[in-house]
Amino acid sequence: MTDTKTTQHSEWSSRFAFILAATGSAVGLGNIWKFPYITGENGGGAFVLVYLLCVLLIGIPIMMAETMLGRRSRQNPIETMKTLAKEAGADSNWHYLGWMGVIAGFLILSYYSVIAGWASAYVLKAFTGSFFGADATEIKGLFDSFVASPVQLIFWHSLFMLATMLIVVRGVNSGIERAVRFLMPSLFVLLILLVAYAMTTDSYDRGIKFLFTPDFSKLTANGVLTAMGHAFFTLSLGMGAIMVYGSYLPKEVSIAKTVILIAGTDTVVALLAGIAIFPIVFASGLEPAAGPGLIFQTLPIAFGNMTGGWLFGILFFVMLVFAALSSSISLIEPAVAWLVENKNMSREQACIWSGAITWLLGLGTVFSFNVWSEIKIFDKTIFHLLDYLTANLMLPIGGFCIAVFAGWIMKQQHTEQELGMPDALSYQAWKTLTCYVAPASVFLVFLHVIGVL
Ligand code: PFF
Fold first, then answer.
1. How distant, in Å, are the alpha carbons of 8, 121, 126, 322, 352 from that of 153?
2. Where does the pLDDT of residue 176 fall: very low under 50, low under 70, confident under 90, or very high at 90 and above?
3. What class is the 15-449 domain?
4. Of ligand 1's atoms, which has the minimum distance to the CA of residue 242?
């Protein structure tokens, strides 16, 4: 994004810059930390299949819609909804959608930063050789004693929030473009390497079978909701992050091609993470349903026992922290853009305010792994509740509204013009998915969860 424009709202330097930033937002802890553990908790193959279907039928059309809304208005999500509702002659209440996004961003970042803090701590653990020759029990012990310490978790959470704020203060600009450019390919290479390690274990086939052989008897209604929610989470949809990035996108860029590329990359990264992790889970006699600690309890075993594992371990966790950073900045950008553009704050002030609120909220997650682990609301710890509320409810509801707005409220002439599809058939396909398939699927999944279906 360059800051050379005379208006307050900037623009990416190229299509490539947008691809990098949006891929940076999409690829993150969701792919490498969350996808494997929720897949493990929800029985594997059938869950993966539902997730893939959701990416294809709901995620991609909504991602196009969200990018399009941002680009058409060139403002932050709250103002975008206001302006476009006016343009379509619709109710101004649509701007509450922007608000829900800003709130979801704060809530997600509050726990995202804590987990990214874990990844940062693991860089140091890898560096000091903590994994060397360790078996599954030792690695689990290491993780358990780490998360039991609020002081350590707060330290790493603070460090990560600080790094996020420093990047956002400077504008989501060339720094991150450059970092992602080098980071994504490196992360990819390391994942392939881990997959190669997983192949050397005697449980590779079992891992693959777990991931890709659907057994629908293992999938609950809540599992379906989690799979759908994860499609939104992993593609950064439903809360304005992609909208705000879209608002910096030059007019001549093809939204469809760009979005398909981003969603494809994101999915491949998640699948690679799963392929790397599950063979190690089975080979080490671990539980696939170990929960949020899964990658921290499995990958270090690989690093501790493979040739060159010391270096690869450090590199892997460094990459993971960077991948998390390029996502976290997009979680906070809608709020910052709004404060700067509408509340006349400087970028510094906006970052300090948003960062401080998120940091404070994050303490809830920190304590939910130790001193408050017994506190349950709706049978969930604070961390689980935040995750459920945002990924399973707020993002799908936000996405549903975006689809309805783009498909039913906006004038066809405007969406056609803004999307600039190569032919009428592809436009029709998008329109059908956005008007019917995506909103109806979200709705049906909700009905299924509350037991109506
Ligand atoms: N997509 C990110 C990930 O998979 O880690 C998380 C995320 C970023 C969710 C931005 C939502 C968002 F707006």
1. 37, 9, 17, 18, 21
2. low
3. mainly alpha
4. 13
